[in-house]
Amino acid sequence: MLHIRLAYAFDAQPGAKRQLDNPLFAILSAVHRSGSVGEAARELELSYRHVWGALKKWEDELGQELLLWNRGKRARLSLFGEKLLYAEERARARAQPLVANLVAEMEREFALAFDPGVHVLSLYASHDIALTRLKDFTAKEGGLHLDMRFCGSTDALNALSRGECMMAGLHVGEDRAPGSLTQRTFKRLLKPGLHKLISFVGREQGLMVAPGNPLRISSVDDLKRAKVRFVNRQNGSGTRIEIDQMLERAGIAPSAVNGYERMEATHLAVAAAVASNGADVGFGIRAAAAAYGLNFIPMMREQYYLACLKESLEQPAVKRLMELLRREGWKEAIADLPGYDSAGAGEVQSLKAAFPWYSFKGTKPGHEA
């Protein structure tokens, strides 16, 4: 059995390389996409000889073929090579939030060591691709370090109420009607006069299915089909709330969904499960589907908010974050993410404006949402 050893390195540029990188899987992924060792070498900016030698070295060490060679035909991964590649992608997608939390802890300490005057903003948040871009953007612009921890939306808000962070990241879909699961979840966690919301990004959520959609899945009703294997999100996540709310609205019992009990912690992990044929369908953001070459069936637009205490709006770190979010540079930083928009980014919203179930007839001055 092979064992894993983690290490880390300093890098002058934020987000220069993805975490948990391994050259073998970069090569396998490139060959899988291009169908050619030569094309893979060019894509990775390596010599053909280097890529060929690396593949042979790994085949010797692993004791199995990674590629199938047929003269005059496209190079393709062996069955073992495909299993290895998808196993790595699933494992990395699951580990990504944990690794990001570890990196955040170390970067915070180093940031204070190099510049004791830097603004540090602690953020517990539901995992999102744009948040990684935001951390890189604030680091590049200077003056603000995001001490970011990934967890579910409800866990983030609970951490905010306990004073463990300055901000909590949460996302909600379009169904915010009184009596909805969204109301039943978030009304107890967000208090008028105490909390404020800062708009972060809008994003598109929907069903992610295999390329070509072989099972012809088109709506949430298809999750009732016994042969359709679903992969869910974990309890406490904002996306799980959206999934349960869709099922409730469609009159579908969780027990009727094949795979309802199988859970992944991120959109990318769900996409990886579908891409590796571990499931037929999952629910997540368009950007995750695009990252794994999956078909995407749009279901809703949702808004991602950063919640904080009302008095925190006057904190220098929060003011700096809002100013950076309103910059044109932030819009450009996420322009290539499918399904995202930055409309209203950095603007403060009251709970009353965001959620229709709050009513403030006769509200006393100074106690507005």
TrEMBL record:
GO molecular function, a single term: DNA-binding transcription factor activity
Stretches assigned to the HTH lysR-type domain: 26-81
Boundaries of every PBP domain copy: 137-326
InterPro entries per the UniProt record, alphabetical: LysR_HTH_N, PBP_domain, WH-like_DNA-bd_sf, WH_DNA-bd_sf
SUPFAM superfamilies reported in the protein's UniProt record: Periplasmic binding protein-like II, Winged helix' DNA-binding domain
Pfam family, one: HTH_1
Full protein name: Helix-turn-helix transcriptional regulator
Species annotation: Noviherbaspirillum pedocola
